[in-house]
């Protein structure tokens, strides 16, 4: 079926949405492949947390990077997406997981998801960020990097943080339309891969993630940082840019 989303209108006005997702609408017409019946045993709040964001990062490490046991991973950006990537990397058996974020308070969140080391770029000396990551991973770099910040300049740093010849970078953050890549970084046989929803297939993969949350193998409770009532929804947008915010729960 052709993608005709640009022609969707409501009472003569164009309806805007992203990647087949349309929320805060009274009515929606969506593909059945995007609909999954929730397990009643799963906390409804947790279900909302893993429907996007967290699962995108989780899938980036699980499905796209396909992290191998005993390997090393660097995750750039420790919001819900980055924490998902850390969680999957740990479940896949990564032995060295490095989290990178300019918010020092994200160190605690990363450690809750079993991150090993933390780098705050704002506290670095004159060393490139990629060099700092290499020093924490035996000088050669990590096997995988997951870029979750959507900051264009960090894509080169993420790639440069990986090992020459075998390093693999998965970019998750949706940011600028164009990014200038370092030719030398690509030349040394590193791999760059894009990702949408972490390569997750909702019907077959989300139940696996939900089960891991239900059995506490994934500390999904740590994602919840704020709760507000639906009538105060405008505050949610303010909270989303707050440095302490990971996930906001709207109570209806």
Topology overview:
Blueprint: E1 9-10, E2 13-14, H1 44-50, H2 54-64, E3 72-76, H3 80-91, E4 96-100, H4 106-112, E5 117-119, H5 129-135, E6 144-147, H6 152-160, E7 168-171, H7 183-187, E8 191-194, H8 202-214, E9 224-229, H9 233-240, E10 247-251
Parallel strand pairs: 3-4, 3-6, 4-5, 6-7, 7-8, 9-10
Antiparallel strand pairs: 1-2
Helix pairs in contact: 2-3
GO cellular component, one term: cytosol
Domain Alcohol dehydrogenase-like C-terminal: 80-201
Subunit structure: Homodimer.
Describe the protein's architecture and organization.
- The chain has 252 residues and is α/β, with parallel strands linked by helices.
- It has a domain of 145 residues: NAD(P)-binding Rossmann-like Domain (Rossmann fold, 3-Layer(aba) Sandwich).
- Helices cover 31% and strands 16% of the residues.
- It has nine helices and ten strands.
- The chain has a six-stranded parallel β-sheet, sandwiched between helices. A two-stranded antiparallel ribbon has the order 1-2.
- Helix 4 links the parallel strand 4 and strand 5.
- Helix 2 runs parallel beside helix 3.
- The longest helix is centred in the last third of the chain and has 13 residues.
- The chain is globular.
Kindly report how far apart the N and C termini lie.
35 Å
Structural class: alpha/beta
How would a crystallographer describe the biggest sheet?
6 strands, parallel
Order of helices and strands: EEHHEHEHEHEHEHEHEHE
Number of beta strands: 10
User: In percent, how much strand structure appears in the residues?
Assistant: 15-25%
Mean pLDDT: 87
- CATH first level of the domain at 55-199: Alpha Beta
The helix content is 25-40%
Radius of gyration of CA atoms, rounded to a whole number: 19 Å
Shape by Cα distribution: globular
CATH homologous superfamily (4th level) name of the domain at 55-199: NAD(P)-binding Rossmann-like Domain
CATH architecture of the domain at 55-199: 3-Layer(aba) Sandwich
Question: What is CATH's topology name of the domain at 55-199?
Answer: Rossmann fold
């Amino acid at each position: 079926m052709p993608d005709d989303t640009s022609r969707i209108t409501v009472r003569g006005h164009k309806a805007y949405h992203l990647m087949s997702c349309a929320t805060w609408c009274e009515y929606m017409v969506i593909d059945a492949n995007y609909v999954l019946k929730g397990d009643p045993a799963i906390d409804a709040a947790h279900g909302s947390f893993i429907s996007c964001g967290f699962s995108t990062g989780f899938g980036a490490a699980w499905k796209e990077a396909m992290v191998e046991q005993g390997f090393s991973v660097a995750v750039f950006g420790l919001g819900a997406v980055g924490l998902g990537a850390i969680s999957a990397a740990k479940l896949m058996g990564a032995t060295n997981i490095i989290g990178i974020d300019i918010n020092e308070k994200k160190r605690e969140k990363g450690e809750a998801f079993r991150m090993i080391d933390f780098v705050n770029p704002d506290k670095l000396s004159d060393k490139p960020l990629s060099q700092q990551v290499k020093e924490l991973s035996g000088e050669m770099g990590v096997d995988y990097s997951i870029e979750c910040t959507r900051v264009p300049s960090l894509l080169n740093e993420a790639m440069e943080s990986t090992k020459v010849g075998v390093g693999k970078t998965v970019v998750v953050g949706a940011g600028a339309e164009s990014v200038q890549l370092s030719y030398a970084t690509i030349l040394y046989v590193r791999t760059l891969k894009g990702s949408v929803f972490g390569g997750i297939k909702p019907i077959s993969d989300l139940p696996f993630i939900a089960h891991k949350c239900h059995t506490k193998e994934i500390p999904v409770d740590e994602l919840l940082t704020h709760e507000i009532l639906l009538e105060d929804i405008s505050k949610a947008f303010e909270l989303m840019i707050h440095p302490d915010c990971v996930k906001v729960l709207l109570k209806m």
